[in-house]
Design goal:
The protein is built from 19 helices and no strands. The chain is mainly alpha-helical and 410 residues long. It has three domains: 58 residues, no CATH class; 173 residues, no CATH class; 166 residues. The longest helix is centred in the N-terminal third of the chain and has 30 residues.
Length: 410
C-alpha cells in the first residue's frame, strides 16, 4: 500500500498520466516499426475517449503554423484529384496521417514534462546503440567464420554499415537522425550542467555514439553530426569558460579522427567516394544520387506547375530510370525533388515555407533544440525521402509541433 502511495505521488509530481506514458512509448520506439504504430494508435484512441467524456472541457487552440502543416498534408488530398495511381496515392495519404494526428493531439493535450520525454528519448537511443553494438560483437566473436579476429575484420564491411543495425532491419540513415537529435538534447543539457563529472560523462556518451555513427557509415549524418558537435561545444564551453573541458573535448575529437583514419577505412573511403560522385554528377558510371536527381528533371519539366499527383511519381521516375540505364528501383532520395515532382512549384514552396517558419520561430524564441532539429531534418531531406517512410514521418511529426508549440513554455 505504501509502495502504491509513493508511486502515485511520483507520477503526480512529474505530471505523468496514462496518455503521457503512451507518448513516451511513441518517442522511444521509432526504431521498432511494428510496435511504434501500436503506441500511436493507442495514444490517439485514449486521448479521443478522454476528450469526449461529458465532464471534459475541450481546449482546442491552433496557431498559423498548425494550419500551415495542415495545408502541407492537404496537398496529398488535392493531388488525388489528378493522380492516375489511386492505390499508391491512397497509401501515401494513410502513411502520412501522423502529420495531422500529432498537431491535433498537441493542440488539446499539454505535455507537462517535456524534459523527461526528451531524456527518455536519449536513453532509448543509447539503449538501441548498445544493443546493436553488443549484437555485432556477439556475431564477431561467436559466429564469425573468418580468422584472425582482429580490428581490421571487425571494421570490415561484414560488421559495419547496414550490417550493424540488421538485428531490427533498421535503415542506418534514419537511425543516424535519431542519434544526431539525441546529441542535440545532450548538448542542451550539457550547457546547463554544473557538476564536472556529469559534463565529462555526457561528452563520453557523445563520443561513443559518434564512433557508432562512423561505424554505421551514415554519411550525411556523420558530416552533420561533426558540424553540430564542434560548433555547439565550442560555443557552450567558451561561453561558460570551461577551458579545461574544451581541451578534453578537443582531445576526444582528435582521438576520434585518428581512430577513424587508422581503423574505419570503409567509412572514410565511402565519404570520399560520395564527394567524388557529387563532383562527377550525371557523368558518374555508378547509380549515384546525382544520376537519380538528374533523371527527375524530365518529370519536373512535364509537370512543373501542379506535379504528377500524389500517387504517380514512382511510375514516372522509374520510366526515366529505365531510359538512362539506372537499374535501381528506389525513390529519388531527395525530399525536395520528390515534393517538386509530386506537387509542382506550389508544393515545393509550401514545403520550404514549413521549414522557414520553424527556423524563424526557433530563432525568435531562442529554442536551440528546435532549431537543430529542423536543421537535421532539412539536411537529411537532401539525401533521403525521410518523410516518405514511417521511420522519418513519425519522428518528425511527434517532435515537430511539440517543440514549436509547447517546448518554450516549459
Amino acid at each position: 500500500m505504501q509502495l502504491k502511495t509513493h508511486a502515485t505521488e511520483y507520477l503526480q509530481k512529474n505530471n505523468i498520466d496514462f496518455v503521457f506514458v503512451l507518448l513516451i512509448g511513441v518517442v522511444t520506439t521509432f526504431t521498432l516499426d511494428k510496435i511504434n504504430p501500436i503506441f500511436i494508435f493507442s495514444l490517439m484512441i485514449i486521448q479521443g475517449i478522454t476528450l469526449f467524456r461529458p465532464d471534459e472541457k475541450i481546449k482546442f487552440k491552433t496557431t498559423p503554423y498548425f494550419w500551415l502543416l495542415m495545408a502541407l498534408y492537404g496537398l496529398n488530398i488535392v493531388g488525388m484529384l489528378y493522380t492516375e495511381d489511386i492505390s499508391r496515392g491512397f497509401n501515401t495519404i494513410t502513411r502520412q496521417i501522423s502529420f495531422v494526428l500529432f498537431p491535433l493531439f498537441y493542440s488539446v493535450y499539454r505535455v507537462q514534462n517535456i524534459g523527461l520525454l526528451l531524456k527518455l528519448f536519449v536513453i532509448s537511443v543509447f539503449g538501441f546503440v548498445l544493443t546493436f553494438e553488443l549484437h555485432t560483437l556477439y556475431l564477431f566473436f561467436y559466429k564469425s567464420d573468418i580468422f584472425p579476429l582482429d580490428l581490421e575484420l571487425f571494421f570490415s564491411y561484414r560488421y559495419t554499415g547496414g550490417e550493424l543495425t540488421k538485428l531490427l532491419e533498421m535503415h542506418n540513415a534514419y537511425f543516424g537522425m535519431y542519434i544526431m537529435f539525441a546529441h542535440v538534447i545532450i548538448l542542451d543539457y550539457l550547457s546547463r550542467a554544473r557538476k564536472n563529472y556529469i559534463i565529462i560523462l555526457l561528452l563520453l556518451l557523445i563520443a561513443f555514439q559518434s564512433l557508432f555513427l562512423l561505424q554505421m557509415v551514415a554519411k550525411t549524418a556523420i558530416i552533420l553530426n561533426i558540424v553540430l558537435i564542434v560548433c555547439s561545444l565550442a560555443y557552450i564551453l567558451i561561453k561558460r569558460k570551461l577551458y579545461k573541458t574544451l581541451l578534453f573535448s578537443i582531445g576526444l575529437l582528435a582521438f576520434a579522427g585518428w581512430f577513424s583514419v587508422q581503423h574505419l577505412n570503409i567509412t572514410v573511403s565511402r565519404i570520399s567516394d560520395r564527394l567524388t560522385e557529387l563532383q562527377k554528377g550525371d557523368n558518374s558510371e555508378q547509380e549515384t544520387r546525382p544520376r537519380m536527381w538528374s533523371a527527375s528533371i524530365p518529370v519536373v519539366k512535364d509537370n512543373y506547375i501542379i506535379g504528377t499527383g500524389t500517387g504517380d511519381v514512382k511510375r514516372e521516375l522509374h520510366a526515366e530510370y529505365r531510359k538512362r540505364g539506372i537499374n535501381i528501383r528506389s525513390n529519388v532520395h531527395n525530399q525536395y525533388i520528390d515534393y517538386l515532382m509530386r506537387f509542382g512549384i506550389f508544393g515545393l514552396v509550401l514545403f520550404l515555407a514549413v521549414f522557414a517558419y520553424s527556423l524563424i520561430h526557433a530563432i525568435k524564441t531562442n529554442n536551440y533544440i528546435y532549431f537543430c532539429f529542423t536543421i537535421i531534418i532539412m539536411i537529411c531531406c537532401f539525401t533521403e525521402n525521410i518523410l516518405s517512410r514511417q521511420w522519418g514521418i513519425t519522428f518528425y511529426a511527434a517532435f515537430n509541433y511539440l517543440l514549436y508549440y509547447q517546448y518554450q513554455k516549459e
